[in-house]
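Figure S4 source data
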Amino acid sequence: MNIVVCVKYVPDATADRHFESDNTVDRKGVPGLLSELDEYAVEQALQLKEKAASGDGGDDVEVTALTVGPEDAAEAIKKALQMGADKGIHVVDDAIAGSDYLATSQVLAAAIEKIGDVDVVMCGMASTDATGSVVPAMLAERLDLPQVTLGSVIESQGSGDSWEFRIKRDGDTATEVIGATAPLVLSVTDQSGEARYPSFKGIMAAKKKPLDTWSLSDIGVDADKVGLDAAWSAVEGTEERPPRSQGEIVTDEDGSGATALVEFLASKKFI
């Protein structure tokens, strides 16, 4: 079984993040890391590999971590390799900068098609910087594959070239159980299982694992179809978040503190 995990390099939420002059997110001037929600996807891919290896046939499963982004985005691939992925592919091209969801899914789909014979495309439920949650569905459409997305519980059974998957999807009013047969696109939520930490052995082994770099021409994508100029949406302006104002201090010298607190909560519609 061949599993491709789509991962993203995102700005560290604890860093001083800001926008470029063209209103795109600065992804080079701030520290970054593998999106936390994508770590769950890597974990589920590795669990599939371990389950297949422990079966009667000892199926051979390869996990490939795929990312699209600037040079620093290779760090997301390296983290996935340290966790246990077998190899990495990094699509990097200056023309990609500023791409929207449509262009990003096009680049990912083209890279997956170049890899070939992919049984499972694994994704996180969203990226922690954009939280769009639409790329997995777009990938399924572009690759003409069934999608089982936003899974909080993932079950699988099979061997060789025949694998079936079932997920539990928790909604606001109901829980759905969805099944499909590979090949498919599968995305997982942060409830699917805690992601493992890279061990020292895994960190050292990752240094010897292959990490290939592809350009747009390598995957057959026209540079005019991606990037900021090709985006279907645009950010017209940004401004710094205003500093936090000092909160109101309520004293209870005359016994009116509780009333003031209730009135404040009511004014904010908390109660």
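Figure S5 source data
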Amino acid sequence: MLISAIQKTTLLDYPWKVACIIFTTWCNLRCGFCYNSEFVIPEKISKIKDFIPENIFFNFLKTKIWKLDWVVICWGEPTIHKDLYNFCKSIKELWFLVKLDTNWQNSKVLKNLIDDKLVDYIAMDFKNSFDKYNLTTGVTEDLENYKQSIDTIKNSWIDYEFRTTLVKWIHTKEDMEEIAKVLSWAKKYYLQNFKWWKTLDKDFVWKSFSVTELQEFKEVCKVHVKNVFIRGYDK
């Protein structure tokens, strides 16, 4: 597993639990509003001089038994890595819980991890309505993988959330209604406001929504998904 960085402690990723965060590299998407381009663009990744060896990470993790509850794996897209399965297995063998942040393009990896109880929480990005998905992500992909992943997550035994980062002039009320229809009966759906910060597309000039606009989106989604939250505003 290519580990580009470790955040040793966080209280933000899972309520009332202490976690560490593992940052991977590479991503199959090229969302213009992405603020983690250093983990996405090959020429920037190539400038990372010191990837963290797995043995160093696991030595660190062994010192945190009974001190940490969760290991969060995120950025760019963890499911790209062929050794993700064994990486999660090794974490679980130390009795830590695993949270995976992902766009879940790889539905087979998802199913294997869930079936073998190697993840305990999934946070899946849902970029936009399927009609605008490839336009939003900047790549052309077969969307069937995403649809299969959504169904697998919704029908799984584990806890999860879906989330969408909202950008003005990219997302509309109509888009949100289409997303909510697909996510009907999902456990949790989070709306996240876009914040400009070193975006992948340097010419990205689109803006965030107001709180009022986000509340309007929330009401649209609640017709189909009961538990809709605005991250940063709702508890």
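The beta strands are 5-10, 19-23, 70-74, 97-102, 121-125, 159-166, 189-193, 228-230. The radius of gyration is 18 Å.
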